[in-house]
Amino acid sequence: MDTHRFSLNDLSTQAPWFIPRLIKVYSHLTERSAATWLRNVMDQSDTLFLAGDKGLSCTSLVHPDTFSPKAVIQERFTWVADPADKDQVKEALAFYDAAYRWGQGLGVNVFLLCEYSDVPAEVLRERFKRVLTRQQSFLRVS
User: Fold this and answer.
1) Which of 37, 65, 113, 133 is 20 to 30 Å from 46 by CA-CA measure?
2) What does the alpha-carbon distance between residue 32 and residue 11 come to, in Å, rounded to a whole number?
3) DSSP-H helix ranges across the chain
């Protein structure tokens, strides 16, 4: 898959499948607020927002806490137009390759992934060999 930074052209071609999915995951968004968010993050230097023919991926540079000396990259989502299409899912690995290289260039040593992804964790393990899993406990407040 040929990947490139997300642009306004991608918004018009990918929006029919992407915006409803984004709103489903982030139910507080409206179509308008989702489009505004996309326009705001597409050129930020701490966000790698990529598009391909049939997929999108958003990864951000984040600081896990105030005492961490290094930032990490965190996948926000990696989605394809048709998650049942195995070819699209396989092609989405190009997003992970690009984000991995981006993280290396930034000097980070952790890439948090698989929270909102159409690429199964097993496929990522095959590709990168060192995908680790950790358990996180949380308490729902409301």
Assistant:
1) 133
2) 12
3) 8-25, 31-41, 86-91, 93-106, 121-128
What is the spatial distance between Cα 106 and Cα 104, in angstroms, rounded to a whole number?
Answer: 5
Name the residue among 44, 58, 42 with its Cα closest to residue 95.
58
As to burial, measured by CB atoms within 10 angstroms (0-12 exposed, 13-18 middle, 19+ buried), residue 117 is: buried
* Tens digit of each residue's pLDDT, the chain (142 residues): 789 999 988 888 998 999 999 999 999 999 999 989 888 988 899 999 999 999 999 999 999 888 878 899 999 999 999 999 999 999 999 999 999 999 999 999 999 998 899 999 889 999 988 888 888 888 889 8
Alpha carbon distance 132, 38 (integer Å): 30
